[in-house]
Write a structure and sequence with these properties.
- The chain is an alpha+beta fold and 404 residues long.
- It has a single domain, classed as DD-peptidase/beta-lactamase superfamily (Beta-lactamase, 3-Layer(aba) Sandwich).
- The chain is 33% helix and 19% strand.
- The chain is built from 11 helices and 15 strands.
- Strands 2, 3, 4, 5, 11, 12, 13, 14 and 15 form a 9-stranded antiparallel sheet that branches. A 3-stranded antiparallel sheet has the order 1-9-8, with no helix packed on it. It has a 3-stranded antiparallel sheet with strand order 6-10-7.
- 46% of the residues are buried.
């Protein structure tokens, strides 16, 4: 009996250890060689950009190859018009489904830019006070999160921690597998009592957890679910028909997501992103995201002062600029360099990573230019995709300057 009991305990302990550290165990298995030949490119361009389109198509194929990405998709908007969009590779490797400009990808932290626009609509209407504490909209919120202001949550200056370990399966918070069906307020209960990293306004610490609190603010201020408000206030008015939250509902054109290593692939670790809609749980296409960027340039959803507020780097309590020049859901650089510094021009942006996906999103207001690039390959950082996108930015800005 003792041996049987011991065996049961060992099995139970092994099962618990596997669930707690499942990503580590499964990482070693399921790898396969990438297909030798990628699917053909699928692109479209405005008539006045047809002469430039072949060069953009070549860039797309070369960048996909350099990135070793299953698929790469990109879109360019100039003065509010999407002038070129293209995709190459496989949206689904196993099924050999080719990617197209209508294939949707996980946005990761690029979702924060979309949430910022939704907040801008509410701020412009006077429905949200940036300097009010989060508890003004969620009265039952526990301290210390309750005392962080909306401005601080939007600019990562509230001292809220980022993802870490948890008593969950698996133990890493960012690999959530629990499904949230209720209000966004519910997604905050796991960290709202966590000690702050510093007093609100005294420093900068990038935090997706803190940004998720804005979902509760949006729901309280609008009286609608986060998804419904995003659809009615942002996505529908801008014609972003392929954009949504990854809530588990079927999406016909959603890519499959992968990890790539040494020419081999495996499906990304399965996660549930219903706990992070505002910070990293949205899906979209590059073409849709160029519409969001164009709306910022044109200030079509709110006034220009509100637009300027959203892209203004936020000061700390002592008046100094935060270390990343982070604004309210956007990173702003007044002297962004293009083509090795040959062109210096303002830009605002928000890139993102997610399980099995990476997103690059740049807005150059002086050129009326928005560029969005996405792939269904995960990355620990954004450097590789940003480096491959740089020649595209240079070429397009050069073409715009030539035309003007």
């Amino acid at each position: 009996m003792k041996k049987i009991a011991g065996g049961i305990v060992a099995i139970a302990f092994g099962a618990l250890a596997f669930k707690l550290f499942e990503p580590i165990f499964v990482w070693r298995f399921g790898w396969a060689d990438l297909p030798a030949a990628a699917a053909a490119i699928d692109s479209q361009s405005a008539e006045e950009w047809s002469a430039v389109a072949p060069a953009l198509d070549r860039w797309l194929l070369e960048a996909q190859d350099a990135l070793d990405a299953p698929s790469l998709s990109a879109a360019i908007s100039v003065d509010g018009e999407t002038v070129w969009a293209g995709a190459s590779g496989y949206a689904d490797i196993e099924a050999k489904t080719p990617a197209s400009p209508s294939t949707a990808y996980r946005l990761g932290s690029t979702s924060k830019a979309a949430t910022s626009v939704a907040m801008g609509v509410l701020i412009d209407k006077g429905a949200v006070d940036l300097d009010a504490p989060l508890s003004a909209y969620m009265p039952d919120l526990s301290p210390p999160l309750a005392g962080v202001t909306i401005r601080q949550a939007m600019s990562h200056t509230g001292g809220v921690r980022n993802y870490g370990l948890c008593l969950c399966f698996p133990v890493w918070e960012h690999l959530n597998r629990a499904h949230y069906q209720g209000p966004q307020r519910d997604t905050l209960r796991g960290f709202e009592k966590s000690p702050l990293l510093f007093a609100p306004g005294e420093g900068f610490a990038y935090t997706s957890l803190g940004y998720n609190a804005l979902g509760g603010v949006i729901e309280a201020a609008s009286g609608k679910s986060f998804k419904t408000y995003m659809e009615e206030a942002v996505w529908a008015p801008l014609g972003m028909t392929a954009t949504g939250v990854e809530d588990g509902a079927p999406r016909a054109a959603l890519a499959r997501f992968y990890e790539i290593e040494d020419g081999r692939f495996k499906p990304a670790f399965a996660v549930d992103n219903s706990n992070k809609f505002p910070s990293g749980g949205m899906v979209s296409t590059p073409s849709d995201m160029t519409r969001l960027g164009a709306a910022m340039i044109e200030a079509s959803l709110f006034s220009e002062p509100t637009r300027d507020l959203l892209i203004s780097p936020q000061a700390l309590n002592d008046g100094s600029e935060n270390e990343q020049g982070y604004a309210l859901g956007w990173r702003f650089n007044p002297k962004g360099e293009v083509n090795g510094g040959a062109i210096v021009t303002p830009r605002y942006s928000h890139h993102g990573t997610a399980q099995g996906a990476t997103s690059y999103f740049m807005v150059y207001p002086e050129h009326g230019l928005v560029i969005s690039v996405m792939m269904n390959k995960g990355q620990n950082n954004l450097d590789a995709l940003s480096e491959e996108a740089a020649p595209l930015v240079s070429a397009v800005i050069g073409e715009i300057a030539r035309r003007r």
